[in-house]
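wait is this the right file?? whatever heres the structure
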């Protein structure tokens, strides 16, 4: 089996409407954690909370009960929506309450998707806190190797907690810092406190994590390179988060990743997002793993793949052949959900794509479906308005066949990969030094050679500006849950400095208020906890 965990759940968990999400004592702890397997199962649950939604297959016994559709409560699903549907990269046809408000920049404190993102983040934090607690006093009878592995698990739980706190800082900014289960209502702290906590935790656990690349033997576990990448993300956005210039620190962490000599660019861009992308550990530093057989979810990459398929993409009688199941043959799923497409703003970043009938570009990263789709969006509710973007699929590159699973997919989600490390390094160097080094320029051109198939797309140092980097990040990283954060960092998310179709809720796009750069604290949490104060503008 390709996965680190097979999700053997021995505990059940309870959600509640404040930040202290406390696991149930469904089993007596002395029984649940009397052997190594108990800790192994619990750390699997901590990892699984990043995409799975409950204790029973794809749906059943949900972690969170604050939304009717359990699939909507997937951590990856709501994080992806917050990062993509609010930007030029994705717009969705569905009409669930509040979902179109994301692209329209019209959300408020009662938006259900904002609320689920908030509670899902803190649910994972709570699980990590509890795992750290139960691992403080280990039972007798464990071998020295088992104790050493549990200590590694503790470091990994601390990483996942830091990862979720980074999301809380990035999306909500003014939050509480909770490191243990307590009956006391938490209080908000200054963003600098959260920033310092994340930084301190990552520094403290660095040597306790598996060495860079060694986690490939236990696929899906975090290692030191993941910690370096998360610190680099924190530092690259430090001016937004806390008003501090940390670009030199960002460069230092990224150089650790690159100089480890563990990672290299995958030869084929598309294969990074296919059903056997667990074979792409040359480039993928840390994924959120999915398996259509043993870790099923209606969120995660199942939503990303099936939610972007509709129209002629899933037409069983395309080209007059009723036996041809297009969704199955072309994308490895039984059908599509006719949800998200992209806007012309993304298409126009790829040279020649908008004028090509098939959306092809000299830049091979342009993966669009245009048949029966209009480039411009007159009606948000029509899937065929806007080009589809099947960047992710559930086919195995090695066989051309569908990856394991029936309704769910086995495509893993690359959280961190070397290609982004190259782009982050270029941006940090440009901010720090006003230019990029010759070595870093070479890294950028490595990405361009992969994209173009030759050196025809290569650039010179003088071409590398902040605007160019922002556009290149879109070309390389679209649909990888970075866009909202990128636009905010470059001052182009809210306001009128950058307009895309349907921003602000009108077809031509319009400026949006600056307070939307962070999301509101959900009204339900303000009611439950009088210590909390709403973010400005809401």
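ok assuming it is, sequence goes like this
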């Amino acid at each position: 089996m390709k996965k680190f965990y097979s999700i053997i759940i021995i505990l059940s968990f309870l959600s509640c409407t404040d930040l202290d999400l406390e696991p149930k004592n469904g089993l007596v702890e002395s029984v649940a954690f009397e052997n190594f397997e108990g800790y192994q199962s619990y750390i699997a649950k901590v990892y699984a909370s990043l995409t799975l939604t409950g204790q029973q297959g794809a749906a059943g016994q949900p972690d969170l009960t604050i939304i009717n559709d359990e699939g909507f409560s997937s951590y990856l699903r709501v994080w992806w929506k917050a990062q993509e549907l609010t930007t030029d990269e994705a717009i969705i046809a569905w009409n669930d309450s509040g979902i179109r408000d994301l692209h329209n920049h019209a959300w408020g404190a009662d938006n259900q998707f904002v609320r689920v993102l908030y509670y899902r983040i803190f649910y994972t934090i709570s699980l990590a806190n509890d795992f750290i607690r139960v691992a403080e006093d280990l039972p007798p009878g464990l071998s020295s190797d088992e104790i050493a592995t549990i200590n590694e698990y503790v470091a990994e739980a601390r990483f996942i907690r830091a990862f979720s706190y980074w999301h809380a800082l990035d999306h909500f900014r003014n939050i509480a810092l909770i490191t243990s289960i307590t009956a006391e209502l938490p209080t908000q702290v200054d963003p600098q406190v959260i920033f310092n906590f994340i930084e301190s935790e990552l520094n403290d656990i660095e040597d306790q994590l598996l060495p860079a690349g060694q986690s490939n033997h236990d696929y899906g576990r975090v290692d030191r390179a993941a910690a370096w990448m998360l610190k680099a993300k924190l530092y690259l956005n430090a001016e937004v988060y806390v008003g501090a210039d940390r670009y030199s620190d960002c460069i230092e962490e990224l150089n650790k990743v690159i100089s480890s000599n563990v990672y290299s660019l995958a030869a084929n861009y598309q294969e990074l997002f296919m059903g056997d992308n667990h074979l792409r550990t040359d480039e993928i530093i840390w994924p959120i793993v999915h398996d259509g057989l043993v870790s099923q979810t209606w969120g995660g990459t199942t939503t990303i793949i099936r939610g972007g398929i509709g129209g002629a993409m899933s037409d069983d009688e395309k080209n007059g052949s009723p036996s041809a199941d297009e969704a199955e043959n072309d994308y490895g799923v039984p059908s599509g959900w006719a949800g998200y497409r992209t806007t012309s703003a993304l298409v126009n970043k790829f040279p020649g794509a908008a004028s090509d009938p098939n959306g092809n570009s000299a830049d091979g990263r342009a993966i669009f479906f245009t048949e029966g789709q209009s480039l411009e969006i007159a009606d948000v509710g029509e899937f065929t308005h806007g080009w589809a973007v099947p960047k992710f699929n559930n086919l195995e590159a090695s066989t051309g066949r569908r990856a394991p699973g029936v309704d769910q997919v086995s495509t893993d989600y690359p959280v961190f990969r070397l290609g982004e490390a190259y782009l982050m390094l270029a941006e940090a160097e440009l901010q720090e030094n006003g230019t990029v080094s010759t070595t870093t320029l070479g890294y950028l051109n490595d990405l361009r050679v992969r994209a173009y198939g030759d050196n025809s797309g290569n650039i010179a140092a003088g071409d590398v500006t902040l605007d160019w980097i922002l556009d290149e990040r879109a070309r390389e990283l679209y649909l990888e849950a970075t866009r909202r954060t990128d636009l905010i960092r470059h001052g182009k998310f809210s306001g009128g400095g950058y307009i895309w179709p349907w921003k602000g809720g009108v077809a031509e796009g319009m400026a949006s208020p600056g307070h939307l750069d962070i999301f509101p604290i959900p009204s339900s949490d303000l009611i439950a906890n009088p210590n909390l104060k709403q973010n400005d503008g809401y």
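Residues 293-411 form one domain. so i think its the right one actually
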